[in-house]
Amino acid sequence: MFYNNTQQLAEHKLLLLYILDRFEIPLTNTQFTQFVMERDYMNYFLLQQFLGELVSSSMLEYSESEGNFFYLITEKGKNTLQFFRDRLSDELTNTLDHAVEMKKQILLKEMQILADYTKKKENEYVVDLKVIENDIVLIDLKLNVVSNKYAKEICDKWKQDAPKLYGEIIHLLIQ
Which domain of life is it from (predicted)? Predict the structure, then answer.
């Protein structure tokens, strides 16, 4: 399968940007490759080439956290995707949306999301937030807050949106 058509090359890169944008969480090379290969969107070698080119052009970032490497879509990648989104068919994006949602559920089950708080002193609570995947702590965040109410709200929000929040924190730290 040779790709001499520039439009086809661009569409494949847009497809990769779209997938990563829809996941809303950082993905390892293995997770990303497995997702693309399971659906037969492109072969392994083209996928790795395109990922490298997207990183080189700053549309994706390949970042490390505790010895694990993750892909994240950058603002430049999101802007490019938004501008050229219409080049991906509605049928393809609908299929991808469903497949991403299913895979996200599987990935989330593999993650342990922990949120707890303790009272330290009067008007001082320590909130402990964690995301653990395959016995590897991806993030361990401790916050001091001034009320039980804030501590509970933070814990509830973390339990609800931890993968997305984790992705945003990583993205903010590496910009």
Answer: Bacteria
